[in-house]
Design a protein that fits this description.
Blueprint: E1 7-11, H1 16-28, E2 32-38, E3 50-54, H2 59-65, E4 71-74, H3 84-94, E5 98-100, H4 111-114, H5 120-135, E6 139-144, E7 147-148, H6 150-154, E8 167-169, E9 176-179, H7 181-193, E10 201-204, E11 208-210, H8 212-222, E12 231-233, H9 235-247, H10 253-265, H11 278-281, H12 288-298
Parallel strand pairs: 1-2, 1-4, 2-3, 4-5, 5-6, 6-10, 7-9, 8-12
Antiparallel strand pairs: 9-11
Length: 300
């Protein structure tokens, strides 16, 4: 790919991460930004952002909206992941240079992580994009950031803090990479500013490497008067329960989270990134004090 990226389209701007990425793109003042809006949606964006209504099920509708765009960033949620094939086809038809699919999480370059059922659709999209990049001019970047740090604490994922009874998995000493949503937004800006260095490859980022026990210690330090009472669980046990629930057709959070724990915290699943692209993308690492500040905001 030659030349810089100037015109950037975002798909999925209404989600938790999508809103942050949109804000970071706007704040960078480096791009002309377009947002794809589902027909019938009442979503509004910042002044100066071009919002285009599209039919996400139509290549023609999407391609018409992407005719002058250099890059497409997809932050489509899990219920819309499969629509990315249509979005990729439309991007190719429109001459888009770079496509960033909705990865933003577990390292699915890792073979064991790729085999987790919950990532099957992401893997299909990734394989589809990889193939298209060999037969068309489109290029790609995959972004892996490990577990969400701020979102993961707010939603009781990496540490359950809402009732002071965190679930500590397999002893809690496994070290894993974790990243806040604003840092992911900054990473998207960074990769767009470095199109050649991030061309047709995965980029790895994190704010900090932590363990659940470290997080618990910081939570106790932040709120020492709360009745902290950790519950110790085994990952094999909770994924076995999830297997049964899935066999019964139950696809709620109780069925999903154990597999996400596996991808995020099982040390054999490539979640402790040995190298990151923070320096290339202009990202600073965070400290334990940064985590304390997040905890102060969240612990009630």
């Amino acid at each position: 790919m030659s030349g810089s990226i100037k015109n950037v389209t975002l798909a999925g701007a209404t989600g938790s991460l999508g809103r942050i990425i949109l804000d970071k793109l706007v704040l960078s003042n480096k791009f002309n930004i377009r947002v794809l809006r589902r027909q019938g949606s009442n979503f509004t964006s910042a002044a100066g952002t071009d919002v285009v209504d599209v039919d996400f099920n139509s290549v023609a509708s999407l391609a018409a909206a992407l005719g002058d765009q250099d890059a497409v960033i997809s932050v489509l949620g899990s219920s819309a992941i499969t629509m990315q094939k249509i979005l990729i086809d439309a991007s190719i038809a429109a001459g888009v240079k770079r496509f960033v699919p909705s990865e933003f999480g577990a390292n699915i370059d890792d073979a064991k992580t790729r085999a987790i059922p919950w990532f099957a659709e992401k893997v299909k999209i990734q394989d589809y994009l990889l193939h298209k990049s060999t037969i068309s001019p489109i290029t790609y970047t995959f972004v892996y950031n490990g577990a969400f740090l701020d979102w993961g604490l707010e939603h009781d994922f990496i540490l359950k803090i809402s009732d002071y009874r965190p679930r500590i998995i397999d002893g809690g000493d496994s070290i894993f990479s974790t990243t806040s949503l604003p840092t992911i937004g900054d990473a998207v800006v960074g990769l767009l500013l470095h199109p050649e260095e991030t061309r047709n490859r995965s980029v790895f980022i994190h704010d900090i490497k932590v363990s659940q026990n470290q997080l618990l210690a910081l939570a106790k330090q932040t709120a020492p008067n709360k009745p902290w009472k950790p519950e110790h669980v085994k990952l094999d046990d909770i994924t076995a329960v999830a297997d049964v629930r899935l066999a019964q057709g139950l696809t709620d959070a109780r069925s999903l989270y154990p597999y996400l724990y596996r991808a995020a915290m099982d040390p054999t699943y490539g979640n402790n990134f040995p190298r990151v692209d923070n320096e290339l993308l202009g990202l600073k690492l965070k400290s334990e004090e940064d985590i304390v500040q997040i905890l102060k905001r969240l612990i009630k």
